[in-house]
Amino acid sequence: MKRIPRPIVRGCLAAMLAVTVLLSGCAVYTPPQPQMGQVANPAALPGAVLTAEWDIGATRYVWQGQGLNYYEAGLFPVLLLFNNHSGRYPVIYAQECRGIGAGGAEYPPYSVDQAAEVVFASTAYKKSAEAAVVGGLTGAAVGAGLGALIGSGFNHGWGAGPGALIGAGVGALGGAAISQQPSMDQYRSSLYQEMGTYAWRPAPVAPGALVPGYLYFPANVGIHSLRVILRVDNYTQTYIVPISQPAW
Fold it and tell me: Which residues pair with 106 in a beta bridge?
């Protein structure tokens, strides 16, 4: 068997290393994804609505100290939690919900596009983007602010069993991308995608499913409760759900 001369071997290894470095430099920035976690039934929240067929709870968004602080960006995100232990398929439409604020005033939630406009016009967003793009923050420090309460199972469809969908923790980027700084457009896009991914979806809740989703309200109006209209079969039911601090 012929031996390959050492200079050729060294040349091949150098070429392979060069290609690897080149591919790493071309890695596309992607926002970090939150990790799967655990959570108790929404019934664990103080003031949750408990019925024979479903439990409804609401908890406020909590900034984890990294990425954009949505409160400072002008939003009051509220995580609506619905656990269906009936045999029916109820549905809740975000546009029919209301945030109840000071003096009983009621506020409709923003659409994702409206919420994004509020965020992108804020000073907090500009500072956060500058820190990420100019300051060189990468990985989990860039975003996933809303996802801190929602596990990655949320991204792969609906209907996970109770205790398997929501939790604390933010994933980190792996491989070459972790050393990449996002551009301004990428940072903006990742925040918009985050708001859309974690927004409440108007899909029928399957029997046995625990479903979470954010409703976006204006900040600083004293919202303390949600008015939720549930539709199932041919009737509607209205519930008043207090907004609690996270219990996990």
Answer: 100
From 188, 228, 173, 185, select the one nearest 56 (Cα to Cα).
228
pLDDT at 142: 45
**What is the distance between the alpha carbons of residues 70 and 62, in angstroms, rounded to a whole number?**
9
Which of 198, 194, 187 is CA-nearest to residue 128?
187
CB 115, CB 217: distance < 8 Å: no
Which neighbouring-strand residues pair with 225?
100, 242
Q: Say if residues 220 and 206 touch (Cβ distance below 8 Å).
A: no
> For the residues of 43-78, what is the DSSP string, one character each?
GGSTT-EE-SSEEEEEEE----SSS--TTTTTEEEE
Fill in the DSSP letter of residue 111.
P
pLDDT digits (tens, 9 = 90+) for 6-38: 554 445 444 444 443 333 333 333 333 333 334
Residue 183 is predicted with a pLDDT of 76
pTM attached to this predicted model:
0.72
Q: Which of 130, 132, 153 is nearest to 143 (CA)?
A: 132
Q: How many CB atoms lie within 10 A of CB 50?
A: 12
Structure tokens at 80: 């609506």
Residue-wise pLDDT tens digits, 215-234: 999 999 999 999 999 999 99
Q: How far is CA 171 from CA 33, 69, 175, 178, 247, in A?
A: 5, 18, 13, 11, 21
Q: For residues 52 and 64, what is the distance between their CA atoms, to the nearest angstrom?
A: 35
Furthest C-alpha separation in the chain: 89
